[in-house]
Structures are given as structure tokens and as C-alpha cells.
Amino acid sequence: MTDTLHILGGGMAGSEAAWQAANAGVRVVLHEMRPTVETFAHRTGDFAEMVCSNSFRSDDDEQNAVGLLHWEMRAADGLIMAMADKHSLPAGGALAVDRDAFSAGVTRAIKDHPLIETRYGEITELPKDGHWIVATGPLTSGALAESIRSETGADALAFFDAIAPIVYFESIDMDVAWLQSRYDKGETEEERTAYINCPMTKPEYEAFIDALLAADKTEFHEGETAKYFDGCLPIEVMAERGRETLRHGPMKPIGLTNRHKPEEKAYAVVQLRRDNALGTLYNIVGFQTKMKYGAQTEVLRMIPGLQNASFARLGGIHRNTFINSPTLLDNQMRLKSRPNIRFAGQITGVEGYVESSAMGLLAGRMAAAEILGRDLPPPSYETAMGSLVNHITGGAEAKTFQPMNVNFGLFPPVEARGGRRGRKDRYKLYTDRAKEQFTAWLDAQPK
């Protein structure tokens, strides 16, 4: 027991933690309750199943903090990034994947690793002995969540995360819609045509907003409050903030030219991104929703090009649970009251597939180092990974702690020689510094 690392949860963070610890030479047992115990959001028993978007967001490691985090995870031989690269789809500068092939690839890699054992079944209480990482994610089971609340003496925090609909390509009217990435971004023709675009005139947009606001919505249970993470706001919540909000958000028309009517400028544009390698499925970008199913089909078919849309999956809403990490975890991601237990992934209060995986990577390496009798400090908070773990273990204000994506605001400021720099130059300074620091952190670890 003392020489084995146990990991609760086979999502992005748990899978990455298992991979990193096993590659360091530590025996790992990965515990996953699916498919023995199902959730309403998951469809399979595979590890690292993607239940929301199929995008890892920007892959630009010079100008974007998410892209930098991609770079760091690749440098650390991350499993999640390796499988994302292997099963990537054209996405115009973003990293999107075939979600089924991706999770199947992660599952095969985990099960084929000689030092990783997988066990299925629900664990309902925090373990008292041994080395553990809790990476149960936003859909932590009620029993385990209650055990966490009992141990920490604090109420678990919760917000709501909405799922975007997926459309069958064959049902999209390509005489109305067209293929184009925003600003024709991408190095290949496939990248430059990675998105399907559905244009709207002003009257069509106004009618769509009216229908969206009037549609039947999912009701919350008594005692629940809708505290959404801003990166996953349902479209109807955005519309409630102002009629033009969507047109300046996921429906913005900039950087796009209608191939069918190049002389006409669309008032708004709905984009769809390829969801699988075959190109048979497309998800509606930024269209997370809590509309009821009947209302969804009616409202979404108002979008030009989707008037005959057939849906592989309609949108939904689920509850996400996370702990108040700044008060509960030390800088090794250990629970202060029970230092044999680490937390990783979305349950720590990071948001996004990449951020969750990165926290799993760190937790796995830190736990392995401890088992092997070594000291492994976290990476400098001048790095993307270090800035995140610093944020959740003390950098954030505990009273107002909310889920956070990686962003340059979490990094210490850069000193630009020669005076003030433009944003492009300044971001390059951030990423250059981070890469140097992260490489040094990796080089200092035993091979």
C-alpha cells in the first residue's frame, strides 16, 4: 500500500497523473466508477472522456497562455497532449480532437502500461491510509463529495456547466452555410476551412434572440443556485445580459466572408466545428444551453443552414463541484488536514481540459517523487503550469475563489527592456521566459 499510488478518477487529470507517476517508476492503481456507476453526462467507460467541447483551445505557444500550457505538457511527455496530437482535427489554429478516438487512445495507453492497474467501482469515502490523488472531477459522486465536505469542514462550492449540441453534417444545408476559419487562419486548406459558418441577417438574428429568451429552460432543484463559469455560459444566459451580447461573442461575424454571397456582410454568424475524424459530426461552437430538448430543436433550426438539422446530441446542463483550494491545499497539492491525499483537476478550481490535465501531471509527478523519497518543488509561477498551481494553492483570494482558466494575468509581470511593448511582443516575453523556466524545472528532475 505504502509504495503504491492510488488515483480516484479516470478523467483527464487522473489519467495524466497515473501516466506521469508510472513513468517515474511508481506502481499505480487507477480507480474509476464508470461504467459500474454511470453519470448523466458520460456516454462510455473510457478514460478521459470529453463531455463538453472537443477543443483544447489555442495551440499558439508564443502568444497564448493555453498554447503555452500545451507546450509545457508536451515537454513533460504528457499523455493527454500526445493523444490529442495523434487524434487532432483541423480547427484553424486551435487544437481539436476526435473525441471518441482520443479517449479510446488514452484508455489503451493506460491499460497497456505495465505499472498501472485499473479497478472499477465507486469509492465513497476519503481513504485514511496510503498515497492518494483525488481527481474525480466536476461530477464527483454525492457520497464522496459528502466525505470531502465532512473532512474539510467547509461547504463544497458548485457552479453549472452547460453542454453544446452536436449536429450531423449531412443535415446541414451547405447551399446556405460555407466552410471557412475566421480570418482564413491555418497553414493548410483543411485548417483554413475547419469551420462551418451559418450567416444571419439582422431580422433573423432578432427573431432568434426573441425565441431564445422565450424558450423553456431547465429548472434548477430547490437550494441550487446558478453560478456559471463565464467560459461556459449558456447562450440564453448571455442573451439575457443584452440582445447584442451573442453577436459580440460566439456569433460574431468578423473575419468571415460568405462564399455564396461575398458582397453581403452577415449581421451574425453561427460557427460549427468538426467533432470527429470522419467529419460526420459538428458541434455548435459556444452554444452551451440549458433549453429543454423540444425548445432546443425549434430554436436551433431557426439558424440559416440548420433548418433541417438532425442532432446527434442535444445540449444539457450539469453541476460542477470544486473545493476551496487556497484554504485547503498546500503547495504540493496535498490536503492540509490529510497530507496523504492530493487533489488534482477541475475539482481543485481550474477550468478546462488542458488546465485539468496539467494539474494531474503535476500531482502525479509530485506524488511519485514523495513515494521515491525525493523533493519536487512546483515549477516557477513564471510558467503556465506553475502559475496555475500557485493560483489554486494560495495565489487566489479564498473568499471569492472561482474556477479559472490559465491566462497571462496569473503570471508575474515581464520587464520589457527599451520601454513599453505592444501586446504581441509582451506575450512573447511571457512565453519565452516560461519555456526557459519550465525546461530548467524538468532538467532538475532525475531521469
Automatic annotation (TrEMBL):
Question: Which reaction equations make up its catalytic activity?
Answer: uridine(54) in tRNA + (6R)-5,10-methylene-5,6,7,8-tetrahydrofolate + NADH + H(+) = 5-methyluridine(54) in tRNA + (6S)-5,6,7,8-tetrahydrofolate + NAD(+); uridine(54) in tRNA + (6R)-5,10-methylene-5,6,7,8-tetrahydrofolate + NADPH + H(+) = 5-methyluridine(54) in tRNA + (6S)-5,6,7,8-tetrahydrofolate + NADP(+)
Q: Which residue numbers delimit the MnmG N-terminal domain?
A: 5-374
Under PROSITE patterns, the record lists:
GIDA_2
Q: Which residues bind FAD?
A: 9-14
Lineage top rank: taxon: Bacteria
Q: Where in the cell is it found?
A: Cytoplasm
Q: What is its main location?
A: cytoplasm
Cofactor requirements of the protein = FAD
Gene3D superfamilies xref list: FAD/NAD(P)-binding domain
Tell me which UniProt keywords the record has, alphabetically.
Cytoplasm, FAD, Flavoprotein, Methyltransferase, NAD, NADP, Transferase, tRNA processing
Q: Give its E.C. classification number.
A: 2.1.1.74
Question: SUPFAM superfamilies, alphabetically?
Answer: FAD/NAD(P)-binding domain (SSF51905)
Give the protein's function. Catalyzes the folate-dependent formation of 5-methyl-uridine at position 54 (M-5-U54) in all tRNAs. NAD-binding protein involved in the addition of a carboxymethylaminomethyl (cmnm) group at the wobble position (U34) of certain tRNAs, forming tRNA-cmnm(5)s(2)U34.
Q: Which NCBIfam families match?
A: gid_trmFO (TIGR00137), PRK05335.1 (NF003739)
**Family assignment from sequence similarity:** Belongs to the MnmG family. TrmFO subfamily.
Q: What is this protein called?
A: Methylenetetrahydrofolate--tRNA-(uracil-5-)-methyltransferase TrmFO
Q: Which organism is it from?
A: Thioclava litoralis
Its ancestry begins with: Bacteria, Pseudomonadati, Pseudomonadota, Alphaproteobacteria, Rhodobacterales
